[in-house]
Amino acid sequence: MDYLQLLILGLVQGVTEFLPISSSAHLILLPELAGWEDQGLVYDIAAHLGSLMAVIVYFHADLSRIIKDWSGSLAGQPLTQNARVGWYIIIASLPVAVCGYFFYDLVSTVFRQPLIIACSTIFFGLVLLWADRIGKVSVDTDAISLKDAIWIGLAQVLSLMPGTSRSGITITAGLLLGFNRETAARFSFYLAIPVILMAGSHEVFRYLQQESSVDPVAFILMMIISGISAWLAIKFFITLINRTGMLPYVIYRVLLGLFLIYVYS
Asked: Of 25, 51, 70, 185, which has the maximum CB count within 10 A?
């Protein structure tokens, strides 16, 4: 993979991982439209590592409190709200882990068709806009419940379909449950940590079954580019979410979906 391709894919991975516009749709279709060869599993791993580092660094203070209180709850200390959030992150991650394990082959073949991705991009974008318009906007992080975590976890299963957007569908679920925009986004980004870890572990397992060389410079560059762009995307989204709402992202999704339908129909 040449360095221009690496730069572009790293930027796209980092930006689209956390904005509600579907990273998988971009990463599947961009190489195809550009005529690039597949970048290989090792660079997928690097991109995911960069995204993982970005979300951990950005939310390090919140995550430190969550991990501290969650660890304390294992030792019998009182169950604080931070500890509950830690448990809710785990619980909400279980459905996508189970479904991803059993349906990976189906998702990675049948649902990776360009027209399916285009329709998913448009449809779930419109659902996101609807949720943003009708949400009651009353719940903050101190009021997230077990029921909320379960519903968001079930919604996250839909993100296995390329074009859905993991952040988009979990934010949609949060808004429909009455979360304010920032809370919905924060909980969605917390959920990215176990999901990226699971996806990365699966990619490492598949990579170890292959015999291929690694360019360490390209690997590190991909990780750094993905990490920096992901951190900037998180900051941009969290800072502007209450001002812009979801409309700009929905407009982009609809235009992207229509473009893909035009190209592939």
From this structure: 51
